Amino acid sequence: MEAERSFTQQSHLKDPEKLAELESCSIEGEKAELRRSLKGRHLSMISIGGTIGTGLFLASGASIATGGPGGALLGYGLIGIMVFFLMTSLGEMATYMPISGSFNAYGARFVDPAFGFALSWNYWYSWALTVAVELSAGGLIMQYWLPHVPNWVWSACLLVIIVGINSISVKGYGEAEYWFALIKVVTVVIFIIIGIFVATGVLGGVKYGTRNFTLGDAPFVDGALGTLGVFLVAGFSFMGTELVGVAAGESENPEKNVPTAIKQVFWRILLFYIGAIMIISFLIPYTDPNLVSSGSVQDVAISPFTLVFKLAGLGPASDVMNAIILITVLSAGNSALYACTRTLWMMANSNMAPKIFGRVNSRGVPMHALILTAVVGCLAFLTSLFGNGVIYMWLLRASSTSGFIAWIGIAVSHYRFRKAFLAQGHSLDELPYRARLYPFGPILAFVLCAVVLGGQGYEAYTNGHFDWGVCIGGYLAIIIFAVLYFGYKIINKTKIVKLTECDLSRF
């Protein structure tokens, strides 16, 4: 039956509707599969949703204060270029073999089963901890309006909402993320337009020109160290763009929809991040004390977006931006839960996790994986309520760092994939989508991610004092990854997969 199924899948490879029907139906005697229900607009907005978040609405102001307008633009620009190459690398693999659940399976196929195992668990706990982060952030945001209601009440409500959305179906998740992302896109576009009007004196009556770009030590503040600080923050801001690779296996037509979403990433980064940072830099000097404190959800009133809207004379700017940031948090939590459940589902079906997590219900939702992730997210959230939140902060930093490990996994996997593809006698013309500037792209991404991971200790130095807690939190994810990799490798005696033996089967 497996041979017959493989032949049928290959024969329907170019027919998206038949392929979607095939993948969504269960074969007699087998368990139900994930559904190919995500449309092109869903994938496009999922990639947008992974790009626009609190890193833009809040942390962009602190980045300008750290590195100056020039340092902020350079830091975000370099990270944007890196993400573009990562997405093209992911796009080449995901369009050729859209594996349902997680792109981390590529690490096991093209590098080493131990590498895929470590990447998968690294990605799962990264997003599971992100669920906890968003639960905490949601509670803080709601206290802006209702300060007398305990934080955990709103966090519980947020958890119920995102679990409910993910329980419906993959199409329900895609539809919710579509509207969440659309609201964020509209907000940024309006911000840029209003910012241009303010900068030119149409609104507010003051022409700012470029004076803030040459104020004090600007455009580059604190030299290379200032830009490095921005570089680290910018990397965390772009976490989630790779979600399109997780969702590729549930797309109706991955060969068409994935490349479309990938190609748009660079221009979105250019417009949303570079455009927004330029507007903020024109209007608000890097010496403004509000920018220094604008990186926390507790300080939405001094978000750079809020400050610019107020310069335009928009009174209720704080309330509006608080609502937008709440939607951003809801979107991030929704995506985190989705990424976790699909990653755990993939691991269970690859003998990397208990088989129970590989089961799906009649709607194609891995409910056991969903429930476990929600429970782990809750337990991580509880650490923010006890012991002064020290463990919670370690987990938070580990979650952020593990995102760069996942990106390194994409770069290494793509480098090996292309070499294996040619080594096994294939032609590049067979690829539905081809990454640009190979091998420069994955090599550049690998180097920049390694720089960020190595630079985690940078933030541990504050005013000549070394903070061991910050250092441990920064490198904790690297230690966990190493333990997972070498532990699996020693127990299962795995080896680097030879290029001629890499599994290039498409389904």
UniProtKB/TrEMBL annotation:
Signal peptide: none annotated. Its main location: membrane. Pfam families: AA_permease. InterPro entries: AA-permease/SLC12A_dom (IPR004841), Amino_acid_permease_CS (IPR004840), APC_YAT (IPR050524). It is a multi-pass membrane protein. Residues 42-498 form the Amino acid permease/ SLC12A domain. It is found in: Membrane. The chain crosses the membrane at residues 43-65, 71-90, 124-146, 152-170, 182-203, 223-244, 265-286, 323-345, 365-386, 392-417, 437-454, 466-488. It comes from the Eukaryota. GO terms for molecular function: amino acid transmembrane transporter activity. Keywords: Amino-acid transport, Membrane, Transmembrane, Transmembrane helix, Transport. GO terms for cellular component: membrane. This is Lysine-specific permease. The lineage of its organism: Eukaryota, Fungi, Fungi incertae sedis, Zoopagomycota, Entomophthoromycotina.
